[in-house]
Structures are given as C-alpha cells and as structure tokens.
Amino acid sequence: MRRRNDSECTAPLKKQKKRVAELALNLSSTSDDEPPSSVNHAAKASATSLSGSDSETEGKQRSSDSFDDAFKADSLVEGTSSRYSMYNSVSQKLMAKMGFKEGEGLGKYSQGRKDIVEASNQKGRRGLGLTLQGFDQELNVDWRAEPEPSACEQVSWFPECTTEIPDTQEMSDWMVVGKRKMIIEDETEFCGEELLHSVLQCKGDAHLQVLILSGQNVFDVLDGEEMRRARTRANPYEMIRGVFFLNRAAMKMANMDFVFDRMFTNPRDSYGKPLVKDREAELLYFADVCAGPGGFSEYVLWRKKWHAKGFGMTLKGPNDFKLEDFYSASSELFEPYYGEGGIDGDGDITRPENITAFRNFVLDNTDRKGVHFLMADGGFSVEGQENLQEILSKQLLLCQFLMALSVVRTGGHFICKTFDLFTPFSVGLIYLLYCCFERVCLFKPVTSRPANSERYVVCKGLKVGIDDVRDYLFSVNIKLNQLRNTDSDVNLVVPLEVIKGDHEFTDYVIRSNESHCSLQIKALAKIHAFVQDTTLSEPRQAEIRKECLRLWGIPDQARVAPSSTDPKSKFFELIQGTEIDIFSYKPTLLTSKTLEKIRPVLDYRCMVSGSEQKFLIGLGKSQIYTWDGRQSDRWVKLDLKTELPRDTLLSVEIVHELKGEGKAQRKISAIHILDVLVLNGSDVREQHFNQRSRRTE
C-alpha cells in the first residue's frame, strides 16, 4: 500500500478553499457598499495566498476575513434602497438577478406588481378582506409606560374619620328621590373633568369614545375569542389563574389576604390582639354573600381548615354555591342559607325579608355576636351597557354594605367588590362605611384584570353604635324596591355638601378614581395593541406567577379532585402507626369498686353511655363509615343522613332519642360524640380532653 504524500493530502483542501474564495468574489461583485476594484483586489489576494502550500494557515485566515468583509458590505443590492434593508442579502440578490428595480415590476415590460405582498391581517374567522371600521386605527395612548409588573403591592387608606357616626335624626332628610338618571358622562364631581372628557373624546372619533366609560365598545366588533386571547397575552398576572381552587376569585382573596396582613384569616383588634383565640377552640366565623360558586369561601376554609365556620347567601340558579367542587377544602364547614325560607329561599339580597332572615340565622349560630368578617363579590352581566354598570348595580352595592352592617361583629372586617365610583350615590355609600369602620381603603389587587373597572372596598374594625346607619340603609333599600320599574330613583344617600365637607375623604376618592382611570386606559390600549399585533406577549408571566404564589403562601399545584379511598386504608393513614389493639379496648363500667382504683381522679373522664362505643370515619360529605374496634369486623356505611368533614375520626355511640311531644313524639337515631381523634386531617389526640370536646361543638 502506497502512502500519499502531503501535497496529495492537501489538494482537496486547497480546491475547497479556492472555491470559497471564488464564492466570495462572485457575491462581492454586486455590492454597492464599496468599489468593485477593492473587493476584487481582496478576493484576488486571497486566491493568490491560497495557491501556495507553504502559507496554508495564513491563506486560510485571509480568505475567511475577505469573505466576511465582502458579505458584511453586501447589505443592499444594486437598484434597491433602504426601504428593503430589512430583507437579508440573499433575498436581495435573488431579486436583483431577476432584474428587479425599485418602483418597477418584474417581467420584460415591468408589468409585474410593484409592491411587496403584505402579510395577512385577517382577524379571526370573519369574512376574507373584511376591515373592522375604526379598530385598526392607533389609539393615542402610550400603554408601554405602564408600571413594571411586581408581586409587591401598596395599600393607601382613607384618613381616619374624625366625625361622629350619623344618627337617625341627622340622616332623616339625607335620602333624595328624583328622576332616574341613565347617563354617566357628566359625573365629574369625583373625577377630573379633563380626564373624564379626554377618555370620552379619545382621538375625537365616535368609535373611539371608549376606555373607562364606554370602554368596551371598541372591542364589540371583535370575536370574543380574539378579545380573550389578546387579554390573556397582555396581562402579566394572567397565568396566576385559580391554581388548585375552584376559580380565580379564590386567588383574589388569597392575594388580598396577604396584602392586608392576613386581616381576614387571622383577624386582630386595634391593639393587634387576635380576635380568634385558638387555645379556647374558638372558631373563625365568616359570611360570604353574592359570591357563588364560592371561591372566596374555599380559600378561607383551605387556609383555616376546621378552625373556621362559614355562612353564605347567593342567588339560587346556575351561579349558586358549588360545594361539591370544593376540592381543596371541606365544604361541610360552610352552610348556605337563602334568606326567607332557609334552604328553599331564593337568595335575593335586595329583598328586605331575606336580609333580615340571614341576619337572624347568623346571629343565632354565633352566640348573637356576628361573624368576624364578611366577603361580598356581587355582580351581574351588563353586556352592551358597560358604561352604566355603576348605575345598574347601585342597589346591589347598597345591599352588600347593609348586610355587612347587619352580621359583622364589633371589631370585625368587611371586603366588597365595587365598580366605577363616579356618582354621588356610590360615593355616599362609601362615606357611610368610612364613618362606621376604623379604617377604609379602595384597592385593586393584581389578580383583578387591569382593563376592567373592578375594585374592592376594604373596611377594618367595625365601630360600636352603627345601628342607625344600618336602619337607614334598610329604609333606602325598601324605597329602591318601591321605585323599581318607574322613572324615579334614589339619587343621593348622603348630601353632596356633607361628602365634600370632608376634604380629606373627597381628595382620596378623586385621587383613587383618576389613578384607576389612567391605569384602565393604558390596559385597554394595551389589549387593543395586542389584538392588532398577535406577536406581542408579556414575557414575565410565568416568573410573576411563581413570585406571587411564593409570596402569598400558595403551593404551586394543579387542581385535582380528591381521590376516592376505602375507609380501612384511610383509617391506617390517620392513626399513623398507632397499635390497632388499642381501639378494641372497651370502656370500663363505673362502679364503687372501680371508683376506688381511679388515682389521680383528674386523669379520667366519665360519661353517661347509651350504647356500645364505635368509631366513625368521614371521607367527605355523606361518606361516613362505622367500625366497632374489632379487627375481625369491617367498616360499614353509616345509615344516617348527616355529613362529616373528610379525614375525620371520632369515637361515638349511636343512640336513640325521642323527638316531639304527645302523639307527635317519635324515636330518632342520633350520634353521641365521645371523643375526637382526628379532625379534618389534624391529629388532636395530644390535646386536653376539654379542648377536644370544644372542637366538636
């Protein structure tokens, strides 16, 4: 076998390098960035250097440099201008070879099209070529000047109210009834006229009189899916969604609970002392009105577990509470009540009898004290009348405020969704809350989409002596019901001069409204831009989501329905390795002889028993099973209509009781709880017996 010499080995490489140099020469010949002679000279020098085998490395370097220089210089081809500089040199050369000249078409007689074929601007599935009148025009709003998205939020409170809570005599002539008003464009008492009018007259076009007041009109021509996609891409907080909760509302509550220093799930008085004393097994009582399907309540029950008890009222129907979808919390700790008629009521909060019935129900179940806080998230569709949302929902807002003053205990808190607050009626309602609570603020959480008019009024520390205000709002609601379907309406609940007499209050409302308007304008303009340009997106959505969940103490988990399990497996899971023989021990009958053996006496508990001890395990709702403690026996489904929080283990006895009197008396079965072992997943066996007993009440 003959060994090839060095010249033979390098011959293919030399040919390849020569080809590269020729390619550089050819590509450079059409460049107008430098004289052809200089380019040819560089290429010729490269070719010369490559021909000698003694300077192979040097020739290779010079050839590469010459090729790069030639290619960089070739940014535009002959016959083109900077108009086409956005296109790469390869496409320019292809057009040049075909004889393209700017301003002329291709072909022998330049008969081809002169302009570049534009990318499709088709929006959605509407007809090909259809132009949305007005929508493709630019809005004169710099949405890019919006604040940098952040998980940290600031709260601005109203100044503390120094005036006395108004009494019945003072409020006797406050309510003003007049002609029903169905326009809002002239409501400039609590929003700067210039800002309000600039919103309405944006760019002077009727179809652009949008944002805030007729804000959604410009989007009405869009397909709903288009609008939702653009909104999703434009909102930096959109990916937070509902995490493992029922809906997004739960995350709004988680958001605000953190921002307000756990004011709701760990309420404190004005001195910073907890309102709920856990050592005394006291429950956190809360109410949730106008809040179906129940996201707010699911969050509170998830956070507090069995330490909380909730009461709810909302409209019966498709938006009712969906307790079966409370995957992350025990819905057995939440009791819906629909006003007059109880469980058979309609849940309409605007009916006075429903308000009274719900108030009595809550007070009866809280030792006449009321709840620690109330949440209200009422709203209804105002499609096509977005600019009138504040006017159309005025009675709903009033009734939610009235409910808070009816069921919240002294020192308790209140949070309620509001919309625009331009009219003196709405601001008057806020003023009454301002008088009745220690501190009040208007707040828009980051979990509330920036383009809508939604805000929350947050009230801290209900004062003593608010009964007259409650009665006054109750009478206003009756008047609103009387004037329904007429041309008259209640236009004022607090005189304008009284509101404006408190300059600090008025200044706060104006600042809040104007700031909210400005942010909403930018958010709507941003959505408008994202609809026009589908390539736009918010790059930090995933990062912001992680940051918010970490800050709010919410695990980043998917929503999963609770897995079904058999009672025996759940039992062993709950007792955590405890010897099963202990559960077969039977209580000792108390006699004079056994009494002598009890030393010390405080280590024992005695109770009247009506039957044998059994163990009760709850798997959620009515999935309750009993076991008599013998290993040979199995768990049996309880044949009684009752509910028990999941992951609960009790020591009980099934007894018979007599209900009723005389001939109406009948025997019923009842569960007598002897002891608590595990409550909603929490092992309480190490706690004192008295504490365990109070937990079951």
Automatic annotation (TrEMBL):
The keyword Methyltransferase applies. Its EC number is 2.1.1.57. GO terms for cellular component: cytoplasm; nucleus. Residues 244-463 form the RrmJ-type SAM-dependent 2'-O-MTase domain. Residues 57-66 have a biased composition (Basic and acidic residues). Residues 1-66 are annotated as: Disordered. The keyword S-adenosyl-L-methionine applies. It is found in: Nucleus. Keywords: Methyltransferase, mRNA capping, mRNA processing, Nucleus, S-adenosyl-L-methionine, Transferase. Interacts with POLR2A (via C-terminus). This is Cap-specific mRNA (nucleoside-2'-O-)-methyltransferase 1.
